[in-house]
Known about the structure:
mainly beta, 16 residues
Amino acid sequence: VVYDISSKPPATFEWE
Length: 16
């Protein structure tokens, strides 16, 4: 689990 706020839905999830 990573804090990816740059993603479309700002949430905590794994996103490569």
